[in-house]
Amino acid sequence: MTREIAVVAFAQTDHRQSMAELSEVEMLMPVLHEVLDRTGLKTADIDFTCSGSSDYLAGRAFSFTLALDGVGAWPPISESHVEMDGAWALYEAWVKLRTGDADTALVYSYGKSTPGPLRDVLTRQLDPYYVAPLWPDSVALAALQAQALIDAGDTDEPALAAVGARSRGADSAGQGDYVVRPLRTGDCPPVGDGAAAVILAAGERARELCERPAWIRGIDHRIEAHALGVRDLTDSPSTRLAAEKAGLFQQPVDTAELHAPFSSQEVVLRKALGLDDSVRVNPSGGALVANPVMAAGLIRVGEAAARIHRGESDRALAHATSGPCLQQNLVAVLEGDAR
Amino acid sequence: MPEVLTAPLVVEFPFTRSLGPVQSAFLTGLRERAVLGVRTADGRTLVPPVEYDPVTAEEIRDLVHVGVTGTVTTWAWNHAPRRGQPLDTPFAWVLVRLDGADTALLHALDAPGPEAVHTGMRVRVRWAEERSGAITDIACFEPDDGDESQVTVHAGEFEDPVAGIVAAARLDYTYSPGRAQTAFITALADRKLVGERCPSCHKVYVPPRGACPTCGLATSEQVEVGPCGTVTTFCIVNIKAKNLDIEVPYVYAHIALDGADLALHGRIGGIPYDQVRMGLRVEAVWTDGTRYPDHYRPTGEPDADYDTYKELL
Ligand SMILES: [Zn+2]
User: Between A20, A33, A144, which is nearest B75 by CB?
Assistant: First the structure.
């Protein structure tokens, strides 16, 4: 039997500042309370909990176990964790609901990017034999991709500046100096701390909890070869394949929340997904406005769902990425009931 | 509220990684100033080589000797090199397709400035003076105007092949314990042990972490606990820890401080190790120069009744 699964609530922190004064659980807890309040559910009503985070951001092993204090994990709950962006935790929860093992799920993720040197920290996810010993930082790898796009004629520096300006709701004059050429400050995501949470529910339960649930019509994730030199950096076949499997190309969408931490990556994603100007891209501002690592992808799903909840969208695409140069990609298609 | 505490936190790890036959041949080749690729069933040559075809997932083992010159396929100008990167002067990150290869290798290009770099430019390997069998045996690339270098089939056999690498890494963090633990540590400076009470179930947690794990609620009401408490359970440590100036055997125990609803752990002193028991009443012992109890010693009170601490085991 196919069960319909929906995002019924979403909450996130104000990401625009460092939250050094708070521990991870202290940062996360208000978001958990807010998302539960939106549905009237209590911790004990949640059938399955799944989270995403990374020890490398905190510099401590098993850091996610402390965050569980904020969930209320006693008496014991059904719980799981992915060492990835929370969008992948959402995927796991979706599978759990599809199997019928649970009717409701809490998905959360968080990241404090400010305690460590984020550009260097992210090098530790690279191939440890051929790449990581060179310490190519996250901006450098994105810059290689940006130059490949410029050489291919897919974009140029003014067009990239316009992406950054549109995301921030500012003019492109404030694009800043080069960080790693051709990427400027305005092409790169801010480094910040934050958390996000969503609640999923199945079938009638979703209708009880939310006036207009954001039904997940399809969700899929795919990965590229890990060697950068094997890939065509100007394209994202994994995003396109995930989108095809999620049913994106069956009907147009009105909104797309793209997880593009760098302006150049929005160019790649628009091309891979065949998005034209009729689609509203990143009305939230996207990852160029707030990029709490490990939560920014889940936030794309949450922002897309929230627009459906508010009646501002009927069919929306949410995309999340992880790894260098859009290595891993997740696509979800969300729909509201006809009005 | 006291200002939140911070401290430097250095994470260093020298991972020792073993190599498979293909990676071993490639890295040993670099040590011998040769670049090897691997040829797939459909005739593509992958450099750097991998053990499995990224398209078909078939195992691949056919090693090919490719050129030490190649062509830049994309680049990025790095005006501010970071720790650990190949050059400490401004350089270009490059993907280079070596002559004879179908894929590109990531490395650094030494060039005078961004105007001297373009996609399609010809470059050549600059070898490191001392080579050990690692990707850093290529010091960097440098501009090259010469002819394409020779490409030949290679058996990939070397004397004394490299079997592994040590991948050293260091990351420097600024650790902050957050609001609740800052309050706990600050109180320790006054030789006070302070927990926090849950507003819902009223349990007192020490050390506090800011949340009640049962209720999932923020804790904030501070409660002074101890300095006396009860041993709820313990173990006898027989192995001397490195850099620790405590004679073995000694006892490490869970101690339920008076007023606390969670046991913390500490060392028991002032009593022979084989006389420590559940229910033993102890008190915190502070020594000069430390910001936390050095150990806990018996108070001399009668043992606590089991029922008074069984919930805290
Ligand atoms: Zn409680």
Answer: A144
